[in-house]
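Hello again,

I reread your note about wanting to compare the complex against the isolated chains. To keep things tidy I'm splitting this into two emails, and this first one only covers the full assembly. Below are the input lines as submitted, including protein chains and any nucleic acid or small-molecule components. They are followed by the predicted structure of everything together. The single-chain runs will come separately.
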Amino acid sequence: MSFALRRLPLPVPNRRDLLALPLVIALFFIVSHAGHQMTVPYRLGQGIPISLSPTALPEYGLYTVLRMLAALVVSFMFTLGYAWLAAHNRYAERLLVPVLDVLQSVPILGYLSITVTGFMALFPGSLVGVQLAVIFAVFTSQAWNMTFSLYQSLKTVPRDLQEAATLYRLNAWQRFWKLELPFAMPGLLWNTMMSMSGGWFFVVASEAITVANQTVTVPGIGSYIARAIAAKDLGAIGWAIAAMIVIILLYDTLMFRPIVAWADKFKFEMTSSGEAPRSAVLDYLRRTRVLRLLAVIPAALWDLTVRLSPRVEPKAPPPAARRRWGDGLFYAAVAVFAVWAVVRLVQVLPRDFGWPLVFHVLGLGLITGFKVFVLVGLSALIWVPIGVWIGLRPRWAQAVQPLAQFLAAFPANLLFPLVVVAIVRWHLDVDVFTAPLMILGSMWYILFSVVGAASAIPSDMREAAQNLGLRGWLLWKRLYLPGVFPGFVTGAITASGGAWNASIVAEVVSWGDKTLVATGLGAFISQATAQGRSAQIALGVGVMSLYVILVNRLFWHRLYELSVRRVRLD
Amino acid sequence: MAAVAHTLHSQPAAATSGLAPQPQEGVDIFRAEHVRKAFKAPDGTDLLILDDMNMHLREGEILVLLGRSGSGKSTLLRMLAGLIPSSDGTLLHRGRPIDGPVPGLAMVFQSFALFPWLTVLQNVELGLEALKVPPTERRQRALAAIDLIGLDGFESAYPRELSGGMRQRVGFARALVINPDVLLMDEPFSALDVLTSETLRTDLLDLWAERKIPTRGILLVSHNIEEAVLMADRILILGSNPGRVRADIPVQLPQPRDRESQEFRDLVEHIYGIMTARPAASVNVAQRGAISIGHRLPHVSMNQIAGLLEELASLEQGSGNSRISLPELAEDMHFSVDDLFPLIEAVELLGFAQVLEGDIELTPAGRVFVEADVQERKALFARHLIDRVPLAARIRAVLDERHNHLAPGARFRNELEDHFSEEEAERVLDTAIDWGRYAEVYAYDDNADVFSLENPGEDEAEGLAA
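Full-complex prediction:
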């Protein structure tokens, strides 16, 4: 680090700098311009003019991307704080982890329905409130699984490394940045990537929503689509889809690939296995001369924090007696709160809704749940064989894997209008034909997990099967299906969660002035939001969370454990 | 090299002197008196790891703690380092009670414990950074330590690019760079191949002998007898369950030591004798076959047991002598001595061989086993298993009693957890499952975690017939 410092004053820029420097500076200008535009004055009820001209799309795309990035930054900060606290404080852990489990079961658009009016009230006469609500919705789609991943990594830092950190007297700050976060990095990045790809769906869905009979829009790809739907403009929808494809590809090359390539060094393995991920962009930046100096900033900051942070003498754990006392107090407080919550719920439920409505909503949940199950089953029937077939052919797998990831990231709600047009045109059954929309965005997770699992089947096992003359169904039953089972379960869990989430936008779809409503919990929440009945929103969201938790606990969780236990070989 | 060593040595002790107490005449570096360590079992009972442990590390001494797994030697090392608290007794570092990580102390780990995302240089600098040594001095001292340990040229490499031996050198450099007052080593050579560990040991002994490092004492945990005799000024042999000091042996052979010399071999043989001898009380118990269900079954597979017995028979034929010395057996089987202990324990427990003063001999039953064919072997093994291994007998008895002849594995696991930690209980039960399956005394279904009496082969056969 001190080497780099001494090399200042600035070196002569090289050829690569000449291209990279202006681009980086331009980036700053674009961001500040967009940030300014996003805070223009606004009153509820006032329509934001959205132009359907394709030339307006780059600007709208930029706003959408910035919202994604803002949400990502917030998610990251939330993750670091929450997970660190949960991993290091016994009491916080027992509270925060179950809470997180509930939070991640609440449908994302449910958060939006509940919070958007509150955010708007915070910033009257300005669009900032709506912007924040959208960012918050995207945040809720990203933060929970990132936090879980970090928490789990923090709890599994190898013991010998922890001992080394203690013996060499790293303080909590140094320990976090030098040991815990690097160790957690691969998992955290993977989850961030998954979160981002889910996030596109929600950013598009929440840019134009109907709250209390008012359509609230912020400029972005989502509102462009909404406008196009209202205007029955298929051409504009085509443009939006094209723009989205370009955005996701750019985001992948400019942001994720470089980060993944850079983070490869955090992989916790002592052998260099396989091919390291590469990124042309990262290589380019590394070869610049002036721009690379920016790397000095974090290093200098780090040195500064180390110098400023106090030297804390490690202390012995508190005596057991005091810990027991603390435990007692803690559990008593939790128990009192739980009893209070149950009593309040029993009081409030019948008063606000009456039991018939509660049972009606529970019934709607069953319908949606049934749809989700059938859809996951159908996707499995389609994508597992295809995934296995692709996974067994390395050249295909290499080509299909990024494509599947791209399809998972692509916000499926952009495609909804195409299906709706078809339903309207041929008078198809609404309940049956809107159902596939729910899983359109998330079934790709099944495909790429299965492809990954199939390509990881050891080649000696395949050779052994060949040698034994296994063929046809027997080969699938004995080798391929068990081999991809863990991958399938992982993918199916994500797909199922995604489908529940998507039900809120997929069960009520429209084309022009024609609106199709399917039967289900998603439609219930969606309509309650549109009519501004906040108590019913809460009921619907609560019931959906309950179903998601139950299904996860009773079904997916067990299936996952079974897959871990049955199919490992050690 | 000399100049480099000079740099490392002449660094102002300022950075560490605030932490490391200065040596005092006549005070041991470490002292443990009546130390006890118990872990809580899941059901609340105490599992005793160490009991009434007394030891000390003197100024200028290399002390080796030698013991088999379960002797609590690593636990003792971690208590001395202040990483875990003791349950009872006194632990002193230079006369002061230990109640947290001890300053001025460095540790080298069996697994190296390097940070894979840091380069060699960054790994070595880590401890200095934590001590707030200014960047320039930090860099200088780290480079000096890297030079000293023979890593120059590898400063910018990541640990994964290095071989095992080079990685452990980084571990040493990281430890030595903080000028530790005392160096703790937790089996630092056991993850390395024979040649590499030999070189590394020699290099360390050279640094120590030539006083190129300011370290005043070394405490090494090992389960390798030869390594202990090669390095130690004094060896403490720990017994198992719970760990206690069984012998305190000074080693007065001059350095460098020659493995082939008679004195060296005698000492190794002597230590073998001590480590395989059972305390008088337990010998009687074992001979009566009355070990309890809480006996720690050695984690050895049936294949290994059969292999050992066959090897003993062939050695016996070759030499015409029925008593075979353990070091000889180890050499013959290309085993390190410590791989041998659990095996020997298993064959003794099952009554197929017996150990006498560092020699091993087949019993008549052991000879029959070697001569027998597969089915006869199984029958003989089953008899011995039921007679001599209470856990196996208990499982069989429970299955016989129940009219459906089924019993969940958790039932026995819980019972074992009264005696062992959860992990250890799992291992012991695994061994019982392996032996029982071979002997066809009972069957076990891993998916359902159920013991049964049925022969899994029969089911399938019926299914095929139907």
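For quick reference: The CA atoms of residues 92 and 174 of chain B lie 25 Å apart.

B.
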